[in-house]
# Entry
Amino acid sequence: MPDTKLNRRTKEVTDYIANCPLATQEVLEQLRSTIKKAAPEAEELISYKMPAYKCYGVLDYFAAYKDHIGFYATPTGHKEFERDLKPYKQGKGSVQFPLNQPLPWPLITRIVKFRVKENMINFQNKKNGQG
# Structure
């Protein structure tokens, strides 16, 4: 059976999480909290039918699946932490965190903070005509 996304039709992150199985909800709430702590100024929204966070551009997305959480910090976030993400199944710009294992909270925090810094630099460069 394919590992399909659990939740596709919501407009708010709270609803997205509430429509997932209870055990998955707990992990998603902790992921949401981790992202918000790492990027308190980020805007939370649904984009591409997934929770997303923006701060000077998109920081990351996540999605619940039957057996894992998909985490999408664009290709740069994953490339920067390639060595740390090596134990996890990956695609271009994505990583799968299995639900039967604890998520790597400190690593997720570092990735989000990296993306905030990267987006701020890119924003400043564009603002100053360098990008």
